[in-house]
Write a structure and sequence with these properties.
- The chain is α+β, with helices and mostly antiparallel strands and 285 residues long.
- The protein has a domain of 96 residues: Sulfite Reductase Hemoprotein, domain 1 (2-Layer Sandwich), CATH 3.30.413.
- Helices cover 25% and strands 28% of the residues.
- The protein has six helices and 16 strands.
- Strands 3, 11, 12, 14, 15 and 16 form a six-stranded antiparallel sheet that branches.
- A hairpin with a 5-residue loop joins strand 14 and strand 15.
- Helix 1 runs antiparallel to helix 5 and helix 3 packs across helix 4.
- The longest helix has 17 residues.
């Protein structure tokens, strides 16, 4: 598994940042990436542990489905990295996914593991991959302009297919997940990353609030932003305690997926007073 990215004193963030300042003297930051945005409950627990034990007590959601922890004393790098190796949070290859499309999140997570096992030395570490749906109705919260290699899933027919594109140019089509992963890795060989920045999504484009579209009746996803992308460690840990499927979007919002409406109402009432913002038009975002 790739090491976490370590930002030295005085350096700016390596990813598009919502909040990252320059580091204090003798302090570092670490940045980890949630492949496809997918966060297991134990991932939140470990991130919050690192923030409390080694950092300044906050988790920074900095874009590209990455999380940073600031204020770590120089010399703690090995301990922090050893802690993060208990997770699948990686940094070397960024793999984004359309956050409201479960097949995209799942395939993106698998693509990240494939890159770690077979892509070392073959794919430039800063190439950005993206897995997105062919149907734009499911693309809310995804920024295709930030992607170097795109895997476009079409699940509308009896046989799902995946097209792999580089700069909007199709390089191949796959009829199963394994072939799609192979095509994506092959397309990225010798590709120089373009360093594309995330665009800003505002208002209805951000998957924030009570999201019922494209869900089974009585089921919703809750989407929340946090002020300046800063989440207190104890509030990050709450997401682990909830024990439900969650993800971090490419723009640093948090989604809790596929909840019964009654459960969603309870969770919203618990999280809203703790800094989670469920209004996409809030001035605090």
């Amino acid at each position: 598994m790739a090491p976490v990215f370590i930002r030295q004193p005085g350096e700016g963030s390596s990813v598009t940042s919502l909040s990252s300042p320059a580091q204090e003297a003798d302090k570092i930051s670490v940045c980890v990436h949630a492949p496809g945005g997918v966060m297991a409950p134990e991932d939140w627990s470990i991130v919050s542990e690192v923030a409390r034990r080694y950092g300044d007590g906050d988790v920074h959601l900095v874009g590209h489905s990455c999380l940073e922890i600031h204020g770590i004393a120089s010399g703690s790098e090995e301990d922090v990295e050893a802690t993060f190796r208990q997770t699948e949070l990686i940094r070397e290859h960024l793999v984004l996914a359309a956050p409201l499309f479960e097949p995209a999140r799942s395939l993106a997570h698998r693509l990240s593991l494939r890159l770690e096992s077979t892509g070392q030395g073959l794919v430039a570490p800063d190439v950005v991959f993206g897995v997105l749906p062919a149907n734009p109705e499911f693309s809310r919260g995804m920024d295709t302009d930030a992607v170097d290699v795109a895997v476009v899933l079409d699940c509308s027919g009896p046989q799902p297919t995946a097209r792999v594109l580089v700069d909007d140019r199709e390089t191949g089509t796959a009829v199963d997940d394994e072939s799609a992963l192979d095509l994506a890795v092959e397309a990225a060989r010798s590709l120089q990353p373009a360093g594309r920045a995330l665009t800003t999504t505002i208002g209805a484009d951000r998957p924030i609030g009570w999201i019922a579209e494209h869900h089974s009746p009585g089921t919703v996803t809750l989407g929340a932003g946090v002020h300046r992308g800063i989440l207190a460690a104890e509030h990050a840990e709450l997401l682990g305690v909830v024990g439900l499927p969650t993800s971090v979007t490419p723009h640093g919002d948090v989604l809790i997926h596929d909840l019964p409406e009654a459960d969603a109402d309870v969770i919203l009432r618990v999280l809203a007073p703790r800094g989670f913002i469920f209004d996409a038009n809030s001035d605090l975002l």
